[in-house]
Amino acid sequence: MTSSKAADYYNALAETTSIEAMADNEDNQWVLRSLKNNDKDFSRLRLCSLDGSDYRELDDADGDYFPGSCEELGWLGHFAKKSAHLKEFLMYESNIFKKCSEESVDRFFEDLGKCSHIKKMDFSY
């Protein structure tokens, strides 16, 4: 699916699809809901691998997202690119995208690049 077709797809479904249908994981649902609602208190997004989710700092877990599929990553990119409050993007651990296609990962980073408010990026493995 091309970027413009993907954008059309997510735009068409965004208003009629529940957050629960977009992501199975409660952490992911919270992140998507915060981004969709343009929550002013949501300024940090951290992508994490499901493999290492037991080892993360729970006090610092707000904003953690665990891409479980191409579709979940697509929704994240769709809402992240529209965020006016997202200031920090982090990637934590390896194997974050093991359940996602290369095309969906490329599309996610293209969407993320449209979020002009990000001031800090950090990558840890």
Number of strands: 4
**SSE pattern, N- to C-terminal:** HHHEEHEHE
Largest sheet: 4 strands, parallel
Mean pLDDT across the residues is: 89
Total helix count?
5
Distance between the termini: 30 Å
Count structural domains. 1
Q: State the strand order across the main sheet.
A: 2-1-3-4
Query: Which structural category fits the helices and strands?
Result: alpha/beta
What does this entry show, briefly?
This protein has 125 residues and is an alpha/beta fold. The chain has helices at 3-14, 19-22, 26-36, 70-80, 102-112, and strands at residues 44-48, 64-65, 88-92, 120-124.
Structure report:
β3, α5 and β4 form a beta-alpha-beta unit. The chain is an alpha/beta fold. α3 packs parallel to α4 and α4 packs parallel to α5. The termini are far apart. The chain has one domain. The protein contains 5 helices and 4 strands, in the order αααββαβαβ.
